[in-house]
UniProtKB/TrEMBL annotation:
SMART domains: Lactamase_B. Residues 75-245 form the Metallo-beta-lactamase domain. This is Metallo-beta-lactamase domain-containing protein. InterPro entries: Metallo-B-lactamas, RibonucZ/Hydroxyglut_hydro. Counteracts the endogenous Pycsar antiviral defense system. Phosphodiesterase that enables metal-dependent hydrolysis of host cyclic nucleotide Pycsar defense signals such as cCMP and cUMP. Signal peptide: none annotated. It catalyses: 3',5'-cyclic CMP + H2O = CMP + H(+); 3',5'-cyclic UMP + H2O = UMP + H(+).
Length: 274
């Protein structure tokens, strides 16, 4: 029996004799199945190949980025937030090896794992089991968990406090249970938001955007974007990190507010006349 991993999104499935016929994450209209159909590997095969390694980078005091090189699956970055002795892994990546485990153990291990949305679930069960961490997922996204188990804690409502400085906020939009992480101690106490791509940092780093599907370019309703901006407004955060190493470095809450206004104006035909 093997725990097959979808090569397109990096999500791991429960033990089975044969790979699944399709990946239910990629078959959804927010992702895509490659033209050649689904393809599969396993975490063990990836380790044996020796192709991959994880780069762990210090982003700022108490915050580390972890990304697989060369890129695998969607290619997202996971973050380790070290908040006064309580470490949270924000989002997850598929590849996990002994070198990564040692490096993270040196930083104090992982006490909690929290996910923005299903596209980054990857091998979250392996990470939770390896580090003895509780895996926090909003209950509205329960149906997207390929490998449920004792390690998962489904949270409900709009917020979930993980440590003194770390709180999850359900924003919805990209997925019903889509969440962001607010770290009040980040950016030297000015606050940091980790957003996955529930709030997406765009090419011009002074702006963000919001989508139902990024690869298939399906936007969100203006009312949803307005609600997301209102939920975020009271939170103090100077910096915002997305899942692809893009950062709004200064005045990030204001960037979210003006970007939401611009997005809604564009949807309403008030931003340009082309
Ligand atoms: O800016 C982006 C972000 C993501 N994608 C692609 O979308 C899918 C789903 O990933 P999410 O990041 O969770 O939306 C994946 O295939 C990404 O490569 C994109 O095209 N542009």
């Amino acid at each position: 029996m093997e725990k097959y991993v979808c090569k397109t999104c990096g999500v791991q499935y429960p033990p089975a004799a044969e790979p699944p016929e399709s990946c239910f994450i990629c078959s959804d209209e927010r992702q895509h199945v490659p033209a050649g159909g689904p393809a599969w590997t396993t975490l063990e095969a990836m380790r044996e190949e020796g192709t991959y390694r994880n780069a762990l980078t210090r982003e700022e005091a108490g915050l580390y980025g972890i990304v697989t090189q060369p890129s695998f699956g969607i290619g997202q970055t996971a973050y380790l937030v070290c908040d006064n002795g309580f470490n949270t892994l924000w989002d997850c990546i598929t590849y996990l090896d002994a070198e990564t485990i040692t490096a993270i153990e040196r930083l104090g291990g992982i006490q909690a794992i929290a996910m923005s949305h299903p596209h980054y679930y990857s091998t979250q069960a392996e990470w939770a089991e390896t580090f003895g961490a509780v895996l926090h997922i909003h209950e509205d996204d329960r149906a997207w968990v390929a490998r449920p188990g004792e390690h998962v804690r489904f949270w409900s409502g709009e917020t979930c406090r993980l440590s003194d400085g770390v709180t999850l906020h359900r924003l919805g939009g990209h997925f019903r249970g889509a969440a962001v992480l607010h770290w009040s101690e980040g950016a030297e106490g000015a606050g940091v938001m980790l957003s996955g791509d529930v709030i997406q940092v765009v090419a011009d780093r002074r702006w963000v955007s919001f989508m139902y599907s990024y690869p298939n370019l399906i936007p969100l309703p203006g009312s949803t974007v307005a609600r997301i901006a209102e939920q975020v407004r009271p939170l103090p955060f100077e910096r915002l990190y997305n899942a692809f190493h893009r950062v709004v470095r200064a005045d990030a809450n204001a960037a979210v507010q003006r970007s939401a206004q611009r997005y809604i104006q564009a949807l309403q035909g008030e931003l340009f006349d082309t």
